[in-house]
Design goal:
Blueprint (H helix, E strand, L loop, with lengths): L2 E2 L1 H10 L7 E6 L6 E2 L4 H11 L7 E5 L11 E2 L10 H7 L5 E2 L7 E5 L2 H5 L12 H7 L3 E5 L10 H6 L5 E11 L6 E10 L10 H9 L4 E5 L2 E7 H14 L11
Parallel strand pairs: 1-3, 2-4, 2-8, 5-9
Antiparallel strand pairs: 4-7, 6-7, 8-12, 9-10, 11-12
């Protein structure tokens, strides 16, 4: 298996336009980028170095989603692991100084300049007005895909909710939540859930293709995969443009 080192990662990050002071949300499938020399920490170190987090400038965010709450399991902000997000978000979540937002199903973990602002936002849905995701759009964060396919981009749900796509609906979940420094309590949160009578298969590829056409998508190959990046605002604008023309634009199994 091909190997990857810290310098290669830094070079790839800089090649797709990341720089000091940027806010970045990273989705990852690191197995496609090679065997990391030094372990997962080299990705974390590379991102902190490129974004200037050690100098108090940039911000790193990863998705730490876990849908156990929707299945009736309690959520503990400090200990509930990221689920099916790949190994990197769980690694980041456990690092010293990293904060986590309170949403029991669609939380984020963050480190750096905007971490406290983002992780203090406690909205009913993770994509509501004033949510961490909306704030990242306002701050014009960058989306980073470390070997991950664009279809795993969590940002897709922000325009879907804003545009009220017909294949999702607001669903409430109630259960036990333990926030850091507080006793457990029963709380209710919402999710813009898939309509399982349709079971939509959502693919963000049309958004990527539109951004590629407009020169708003950056990509560089690294071993077996790619490192990709774009701006949050560009992604949201492109997706909302597509959904305005056809609310089913991202669904590959659109009902007939």
């Amino acid at each position: 298996m091909l190997k990857v080192n810290r310098d290669q990662i830094i070079s790839a990050l800089e090649s797709v336009g990341l720089k000091k002071g940027d806010g970045v949300m990273a989705h990852s499938a690191l197995q496609f980028l090679g065997l990391p020399e030094g372990g997962l920490g080299i990705y974390y170190e590379a991102l902190c170095a490129v974004l200037g987090i050690g100098e108090g400038t940039g911000t790193l965010v990863v998705p730490t989603f876990n849908f156990g709450f929707a299945r009736g399991e309690p959520f503990d902000q400090a200990t509930t692991p990221a689920e099916e997000m790949g190994v990197f978000p769980e690694y980041v979540r456990q690092q010293s100084g990293v904060l986590r937002s309170p949403h029991p199903m669609q939380s984020i973990a963050a480190l750096g300049h905007h971490a406290e602002d983002l992780c203090s936002r406690d909205t009913s849905s993770a994509f509501d007005p004033d949510s961490a995701f909306e704030r990242m759009v306002e701050l014009d964060f960058k989306l980073l895909l470390l070997g991950a396919d664009v279809r795993f981009t969590s940002l897709v749900h922000y325009p879907e909710q804003r545009m009220k796509v017909p294949y999702r609906y607001r669903k409430e979940f109630t259960g036990q939540v333990r926030l850091i420094g507080k006793p457990p309590e029963v709380r209710t949160y919402r999710m813009f859930a898939r309509d399982m009578t349709i079971d939509p298969l959502v693919n963000c590829a049309p958004v990527r293709e539109l951004l590629l056409e407009r020169g708003r998508w950056s990509s560089v190959e690294l071993n077996y995969g790619k490192v990709d990046a774009c701006r949050f605002r560009d992604f949201v604008a492109a997706e909302e443009e597509l959904l305005a023309k056809d609310p089913w634009a991202l669904v590959t199994n659109k009902p007939t």
